[in-house]
Amino acid sequence: MAFQEADSLATTTFLKQVGQIESMTFKVSANEVSTEEFRDFNLALNYRDSLISAGINDVVLNYFIFEEEKEFEGVKEYVSLIKLNDLFIPESKINAAREDILIAANKLDFKAYYTLRSRIFNDIKFMILMGILTLFIITFLVLLFFLTFVRSKNRNKANQIKLYQSIVGDPISNLLFSYELQEIQTMTYGEVKAIFNTEYFEVDLFKDTLIKEIIYVNKNLKGDFKDKLKEIYLILQLDSFSKKKLKSKNWEDQASGIVELHEMNIKDAVPQLGPLLQSKVFLVRTNAVRAYLHLSPIKDLKFLADQDFPLSKWQQMSLYRVIKEISKDEQVKVVSLLDSDNPSIRVFGIKLVRLLGRMDRISKLSQMYPVSTYAEKIEILTTFKALNAFTELELTHRAFLNGEPKLSILAAELMGVIGDDTSVDLIIEKLKQNNNSFEFKKSMMISLFSLDKFKFESIVDQQGDEQLYQLRSHIKDTLLAYV
Q1: Residue 3 pLDDT more than 60?
Q2: Residue 80 to residues 11, 22, 62, 114, 303, Cα–Cα distance (Å)
Q3: Which of 86, 204, 406, 424 is deepest in the core (most CB within 10 A)?
Q4: Higher pLDDT, 23 or 247
Q5: Which residues contact 281 (CB under 8 A, 6 or more apart)?
Q6: Where are the alpha helices (H) located in 179-324, listed in sequence order?
Q7: In what order do the strands lie in the sheet with 60-65?
């Protein structure tokens, strides 16, 4: 019995001296507190003693080897095995090792800079990521500031325009309805300015608002009112303000100035419009051409013929509206367009010949046809049909036999208007061929019906083609004449 107690005391003493043993842990538990786990035996004893000193009962110290709970007898066997094989480090050696580490550390120079900051700066990928993130944040803040600034500026401008509109409304109405044209014509700059009675008159935005209000009213009134508005515009020297815009580097100002001079019919602005006819900006160029054509006393389209940029269909429509309003006494010189080096300009010239009914230019179109582009040939044949160009039947026959599907169809339709017996024979020969498209057959049958109804019937009976039967029924049905 005494031997067992001595053995237990030796085991406990060994555990205190060593403190920690590989794969061995200690847990202290009690009814009133949670279980705590320790790897150091001395710490476990101290914790147990503190609980007992605190008056906590039933404090138990449990032993675990390889996470399996053991009785003290098992602990003694494990400790004996450890001691027998020297599988522990004596406390004296542990302390000596600690002292050696401290002595070695004291010999090193302490560098406080080697901290988290130095490790961050040495990480290239992290630095690149931080740089990108910083750049993104800076860009975002700059854009946010810019958008806020622009919105604030636009809001202030809109408020100013509303203020100016409220100021100019009554004076314009007063001048239009309270004064005769002759009275306005005799007024001076100071007198008209006094009617507006505002200190904003020298502000560019005020002038711009005033011009827009005058143009708006000008579009909705006729007769003397238009003349009055023009006189007000000239007396206040707003034409000079509009001309000044033409020299601006901002294309929006240029376009605005052109429209203003055009609407107010300021003919002496023609020289200033010249340089803008070749502008690289589509809107500026288009408005300049329209204004130049409207304001120029000489209706020569040579300025348009010299244009290097292609003429869009929208521009063609816009120009045609201006040209159509020109008096017949000021006949437009279309021939310069037909001689242009710009294909789109030549196409527009051919359309003008058709739309303006210029029979005197049919011979010119005939001369152009052999060397024309495909698009020009289509417009020429369409023009010949619209103007009933009987003199161009031979050219039409050549186009019919040319082999180009679209040109052959147009030529076949044209022969129905200006054709003769030769045209009938050519159509019949073509109908006998089996490689004709439906559209081509339809155009030939319609033309043949208008030229020779007897041969129209006979060719259908001779060929026995189902499509020809259907086309004959369709063409002869009066209800389907325009279908």
Answers
A1: no
A2: 8, 14, 18, 47, 116
A3: 424
A4: 247
A5: 251, 254, 255
A6: 181-185, 189-196, 204-220, 224-235, 238-246, 251-263, 270-273, 282-295, 302-305, 313-324
A7: 36-38, 24-29, 60-65, 68-70
